[in-house]
From TrEMBL:
SUPFAM superfamilies: Thioredoxin-like. This is Glutathione peroxidase. It comes from the Bacteria. Residues 1-181 form the Thioredoxin domain. One of its GO terms (molecular function) is peroxidase activity. The keyword Oxidoreductase applies. Keywords: Oxidoreductase, Peroxidase. InterPro entries: Glutathione_peroxidase, GPX_AS, GPX_CS, Thioredoxin-like_sf, Thioredoxin_domain. PANTHER family: GLUTATHIONE PEROXIDASE (PTHR11592:SF78).
Amino acid sequence: MSIYPYTARSIRGKEIELEEYKGKVLLIVNTASKCGFTHQYSDLQKLYERYEDRGFQILGFPSNQFGEQEPGTNEEVNVFCQINYGVTFPLFEKVEVKGENKHPLFTHLTEQAGFEGFDMNHSSGKLLQSMLESKDPEALNNDEIKWNFTKFLIDREGNVITRFESTVDPLDIEPAIEALL
């Protein structure tokens, strides 16, 4: 099943049918403004600018579920992203991306592309693994999103192709994006 039956509210509150992105390659990312991975906004914007004219879109979904690292209002998030990272790709209202109240889109994404572990060759992968082992060991045994900046690559038909954990830099995803374009 594709992502097209789902809807989400833009950061300005407009209901968006994801079918509007039919025919485009998408990267769906859960984001946060006060995270150690927040710098990824910069590379996400670079990818967006590089490939937008070839049918590529990034959809950013702020969430405050990981260390309360997205405490601001939707307007504050939008301003932060524009001023600090020049973000022009679509941002959506803050959502829950795990747990009982997670947005239906994220239920679909995690069902289609489960958690396969962190890259233990990456220092942040070791840090996240250790943190979850000590604070929430059950989290390592399910497909829920583990942290901010988990990324899902979607093909032009709306199918989830793969999942990239927080530790994967957006520019490292570029070959996978190019293959779908």
